[in-house]
Amino acid sequence: MKVEKIDDLFLAQIKDIYDAEKQLVKAIPKMAKASSSEELRQGFQEHLEQTKGHVSRLEQIFDQLGQKASGTKCKGMAGLIEEGEEIVEEVEQSPLRDAGLIAAAQKVEHYEIASYGTLRTFAQMLGHRQAERLLEQTLEEEKETDQKLTELAESMVNEEAAQTGSGGGAL
Asked: CA-to-CA distance for 117 and 132, rounded, in angstroms?
């Protein structure tokens, strides 16, 4: 797809985040299964349902734009998911892995927050009011998920991880 004007860039970025969300629909169940914390597992399950809603909203935007819903490979999300998979492979199921999974999930959330914020601004500039509202709704959900992950990490997971195999060495 040749990008020559802001409308093209908007559509290209919608296709990118659409693929990113579809990748997450496949990755989140694996992250949930890899967790040792029931609270974290439940959080991943809740976010999976929310992510399916994000896919649905993006499909509504494609429809509003008169476009077929399709994605363009999101290499950024693929890399972030790969990092999360490495944590699962390298760290035994424990609070330490949970801390790593939260870190990986927050990287994903920050990527999505940046993407949805940009897309909302593009939609606003282009006068796509319905798309703007849908993107804003998703942006707020992504921010809430990031906050929940922070609270979970700070309230229990990071402390439990610090007790796991603590070598006491300074960095």
From this structure: 10
Mean pLDDT of 143-154: 92
Q: How confident is the model at residue 73 (pLDDT cuts 50, 70, 90)?
A: very high
Least Cα distance to 142 among 102, 104, 115 occurs for 115
How far is Cα 109 from Cα 103, in angstroms, rounded to an integer?
10
Chain-centroid distance of CA 143 in Å reads 10
Q: What is the pTM of this model?
A: 0.91
Cβ-based neighbours of 154, under 8 Å, separated by 6 or more: none
* Cβ burial, residue 155 (10 Å; 0-12/13-18/19+): exposed
3-state secondary structure of 26: helix
- Domain spans of the chain, in order of start: 6-156
The DSSP call for residue 153 is: I
- The answer to whether domain 6-156 has CATH 1.20.1260.10 is yes
Pairwise CA distance, residues 43 & 120, whole Å = 26
Residues 12 and 8: their CA atoms lie apart, in Å, by 6
- Residue type for position 128: H
Which of the two residues, 153 and 118, has the higher pLDDT score? 118
Whether the per-residue pLDDT at 142 is higher than 50: the answer is: yes
